[in-house]
């Protein structure tokens, strides 16, 4: 595990803009990282049902990123996360015997509306948060997740490079601050989702 983490952390040397993004979004990263929902994922105490609802709400965001940002030219099937997530959701649905697509369990709509208003460049703020979360924190979280194919990457070092380069492509001193603003907004949507799923009194309907 330790060796794996070292391999992950040393996969890529970020450029000056990546470094700036990391620095200026650290407060939001650490805020969500210390939320009891995420801590529960880390300790294995988060109920399966809540994790499944969380996944189901993230799926449209992943699909949106893939639809707009992954094209034939830059296809890398190892980072097509929506397929893995669908697989995990199906496994949870069967395991819990629950329909996750009930209205009161779907919280992502305002987030998705905001996402669709952004141009492709700023849509990368979601690529940044979601994919790097899976590739870094996800590698620590996955050992306590029942169905975690979302965190499996065949060539994680190559995939980190690929995603980081996609993000860095087009970043410059003129747009980096607006990009950071979008990343921070995305973190707020993540936080809101985590709060909702954590606080909701949701029970499986058998
Ligand atoms: C227990 C939960 C988590 C742990 C232990 C964790 C840990 C980490 C670690 C070790 C890194 C690499 C930092 C480095 O390069 O020095 C990282 C990066 C990152 N994590 Fe997390 N994380 C967690 C949760 C999250 C969550 C919930 C999100 C977003 C929803 C997230 C988003 C990110 C992003 C975007 C990066 C890339 C930062 C950058 O290099 O620019 N993480 N995380």
What fold name stands as the CATH topology?
A: Heme Oxygenase, Chain A
Cα distance spanning the termini: 38 Å
Average pLDDT: 93
Q: Could you name the CATH homologous superfamily?
A: Heme oxygenase-like
Helix fraction, binned, reads: 55-70%
Number of helices: 11
Poorly predicted regions are none
- Largest sheet descriptor: none
Q: Judging by the overall fold, what is the CATH architecture?
A: Up-down Bundle
Count every beta strand, where a strand is a DSSP E run of 2 or more residues: 0
Bound molecules: protoporphyrin IX containing FE
Number of spatially distinct domains: 1
Provide a descriptive summary of the structure in words.
The chain is 67% helix and 0% strand. It has 11 helices and no strands. It is globular and about 50 Å long. It starts with a helix and ends in a 7-residue tail after the last helix. The model has no long low-confidence stretch (mean pLDDT 93). It has a single domain, classed as Up-down Bundle (Heme Oxygenase, Chain A), CATH 1.20.910.10. The protein has 206 residues and is mainly alpha-helical. The structure holds protoporphyrin IX containing FE. Protoporphyrin IX containing FE (HEM) binds next to helix 2, helix 3, helix 4, helix 8 and helix 9.
